[in-house]
User: Which sequence fits this backbone?
């Protein structure tokens, strides 16, 4: 069936889970990494070809593999950059990849080509997810090869006729290095990831695993290596956000804003020295809280008075927006681009 087939990926993930629950991060990490790489490869290949609902379901499955990998990465002592490349490719992949839908809306004359590409890709995706009978395997492989060649030909034609399609096709091949080179000076990307952290709980004769919803932040700058900062359990942050939303104008001995500052801002602040503009990509409960409303250093002030903060919904979109722009955009340009994407 191939290493990218969903059944192969599921078996790799299951075996990785067994090793993780046995407390063996070194043995589970390669399996989960392979499952995650195969899932991402399959999603990118089929992106835009499946109906949007199926894309979202497939992306949710991919997010499950990402959850496991983020859980094991710290135990396996992986570098932040080796982990973040999966986050960058996964987070918002469906949103960033709705290329054909936008193209048909903006360029009606290209609609026939886009429709054929969609039909070809849909057929190819359905075949890729199928399990052929042994006596039909050769025909199955031959049809996949034929459809793949046609898909690539149509993509090449559309790329020649539409600069927007070419840019989006390039953007689907995201890389951490490209993102870092695109970030202006005195600017930092703060990419929050909400994930289900899997704990290993080895016990004699039993395989057990516990799960806790957690938040982690990746700090990406052009002038420094990527940093991962774990923010811990999501529940205290969620409780503080609810309290802030309910009581932000009330006078209270316990200020939810100060609690949020301690839980969210203080852990990442040491890695933001010299950054005048913060490109902030929230996730989970933090999507319902404006980072700029955190308390400032001086009582009665807010963080927005000390830093320029722009919401970056999906870091992949940052690469797409800057494609074709001048090589060293200012932090004002970066801020306006992100605000326009909201």
Assistant:
């Amino acid at each position: 069936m191939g290493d990218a087939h969903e059944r192969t990926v599921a078996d790799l993930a299951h075996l990785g889970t067994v090793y993780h629950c046995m407390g063996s991060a070194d043995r589970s990490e390669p399996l989960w990494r392979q499952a995650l790489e195969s899932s991402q490869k399959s999603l990118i290949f089929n992106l835009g070809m499946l109906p949007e609902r199926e894309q979202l379901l497939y992306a949710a499955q991919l997010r499950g593999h990402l959850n496991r990998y983020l859980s094991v990465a710290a135990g396996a002592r992986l570098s932040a950059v080796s982990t973040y490349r999966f986050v960058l490719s996964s987070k918002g992949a469906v949103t960033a990849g709705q290329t054909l839908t936008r193209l048909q809306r903006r360029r009606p004359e290209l609609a026939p080509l886009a429709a054929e590409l969609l039909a070809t890709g849909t057929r190819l995706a359905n075949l890729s997810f199928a399990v052929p009978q042994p006596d039909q395997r050769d025909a199955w492989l031959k049809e996949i090869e034929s459809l793949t060649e046609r898909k690539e030909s149509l993509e090449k034609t559309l790329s020649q006729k539409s600069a927007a399609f070419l840019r989006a096709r390039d953007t689907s091949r995201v890389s951490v290095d490209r993102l870092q080179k695109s970030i202006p000076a005195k600017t930092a990307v703060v990419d929050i990831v909400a994930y289900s952290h899997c704990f290993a709980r080895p016990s004699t004769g039993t395989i057990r695993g516990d799960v806790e919803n957690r938040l982690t932040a990746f700090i990406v700058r052009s002038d420094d290596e990527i940093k991962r900062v774990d923010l811990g359990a999501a529940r205290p942050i969620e409780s503080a956000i609810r309290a802030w939303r309910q009581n932000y104008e009330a006078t209270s001995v316990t200020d939810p804003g100060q609690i949020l500052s301690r839980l969210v801002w203080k852990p990442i602040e040491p890695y933001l020295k010299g950054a005048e503009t913060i490109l902030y990509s929230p996730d989970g409960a933090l999507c319902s809280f404006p980072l700029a409303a955190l308390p400032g250093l001086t009582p009665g002030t807010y963080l927005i008075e000390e830093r320029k903060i722009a919401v970056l919904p999906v870091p992949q979109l940052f690469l797409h927006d800057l494609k074709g722009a001048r090589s060293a955009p200012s932090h004002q340009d970066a801020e306006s681009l992100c605000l326009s994407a909201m």
